[in-house]
Specification:
Number of helices: 3
Bound molecules: calcium ion
Structural class: alpha+beta
Number of strands: 23
Distance between the termini: 28 Å
Oligomer: single chain
Shape: globular
Helix content: 10-25%
Strand order of the largest sheet: 5-6-9-23-17
Order of helices and strands: EEEEEEEEEHEEEEEHEEEHEEEEEE
Length: about 375
């Protein structure tokens, strides 16, 4: 079956340049024991959507803005591999449309640059307690800084008052930004859209995502798990059923690592598990996967984006200090959106949610 993914890019700086990328994809017959889709397309890589430069799937060490273009497809979301994970049953069939996702977590250097733009454009303030806070709309705390009296953790990001600029500890520029709230992750996407001239996919006055817009945004929980599985069917971790702490991922340790320090998954995405937890758009609901059960599989859903309201947001992937079991691709966790916690970071998604969904035949899960 042939599929195509269209990826539209736009460049800011007064010139409008639109480019379309058609990613030819072939889905191989799925001979695995689960019905989960086994994608065989080669992910395409940009150094950033704004530049539109194709990297032919080759990661560059300094290309931290790289986005992986994922064709839409279907997979089994949830505890396929077994383990009675909290909130991860029943397994359900999920269809997701094409989208793009960051090859890396957002780094301290990237975050500092975007927040500098926001500060210079009066979108944020730095409070007396050294917290970055939005100055427009529903004002929210975004990120804790190193010199904040209320910061219990190590942060590589700080604010130099005399220079009026954000600074990052030397050597930590490529480490993932941490102690970022869900609002901080949303605001980062919103500011980056404004900086680079993309559509307003994130509104920080309402704290909502407009999924019809082509711009940076947070991934939905379903998109996150689709990306994390890397094309494998029903495995626990991004590259199979084992994960060695410190080797396959930065977890169970005492500090984070520079992004991309460990092996990517089958889609070429680094650190989906470990290093920092990654905020998703969705409100959390323990019973979110519940629905009609047929042939042992939960009800099929297309482009789910979670409950319409809630108290906590989904956060995924486990952090640099977390146990390996927490770093499963199906492990669900949650936190209040204002949480400023160690190892809570950001991975961006990009692109409008669309109807470009695979229609490959699925078979019942083998029991
Ligand atoms: Ca991660």
């Amino acid at each position: 079956m042939e599929q195509s993914a269209t990826f539209r890019t736009r460049i800011a700086a007064s010139m409008l340049v639109c480019g379309f990328l058609f990613a030819g994809c072939t889905l191989a017959p799925d001979r695995s024991e689960s019905i989960e889709k086994k994608s065989s397309f080669a992910p395409l890589v940009y150094d950033s959507p704004a530049s539109g430069i194709l990297r032919d799937g080759k990661a560059l060490p300094d290309a931290q803005d790289s986005m992986i273009v994922l064709s839409g497809g279907k997979y089994l979301q949830g505890d396929v591999a077994g383990g009675s994970l909290f909130g991860a049953t029943p397994v359900r069939e999920v269809h997701v449309g094409s989208f793009s996702i960051g090859m890396y977590e957002v780094t301290c250097g990237q975050f500092a640059a975007v927040m500098q733009w926001a500060l210079d454009n009066e979108k944020v303030i730095v409070t007396a307690d050294k917290i970055i806070r939005t100055s427009v709309g529903d004002s929210q705390d975004l990120c804790m800084l190193k010199s904040s009296p209320s910061n219990y953790y190590y942060s590589a990001l700080d604010f130099d008052e005399s220079a009026g600029s954000f600074v990052v500890d030397r050597g930590r520029e490529s480490f993932p930004v941490e102690i970022v709230s869900w609002h901080g992750a949303m605001a980062y996407a919103a500011f980056k859209n404004a900086m680079e001239g993309f559509e307003k996919a994130v509104d920080i006055s309402t704290w909502r995502i407009n999924f019809s817009k082509n711009g940076y945004r947070l991934p939905t929980e379903a998109e996150w798990e689709y990306a994390a599985r890397g094309g494998l069917s029903g495995k626990k971790y991004p590259n199979g059923n084992t994960l060695v702490a410190g080797e396959d991922a930065q977890n169970s340790g005492i500090e984070p690592a520079a992004v991309g320090s460990h092996k990517p998954n089958g889609y070429g995405i680094h650190d989906m598990v470990g290093n920092t937890w990654e905020w998703c758009w969705d409100w959390f609901a323990e019973k979110e996967y519940d629905g009609r059960i047929r042939d042992g599989i939960g009800e099929s859903v297309t482009n789910p984006s979670g409950p319409v309201s809630g108290a906590e947001r989904v956060i995924r992937g486990g952090g640099w200090y977390d146990a390996t079991s927490t770093c499963r691709v199906d492990f669900r966790s949650k936190a209040v959106p204002s949480a400023l916690e160690e190892a809570f970071g950001i991975r961006l998604a990009f692109g409008a949610v669309n109807a470009d969904v695979s229609v490959t035949t699925v078979r019942p899960l083998a029991r």
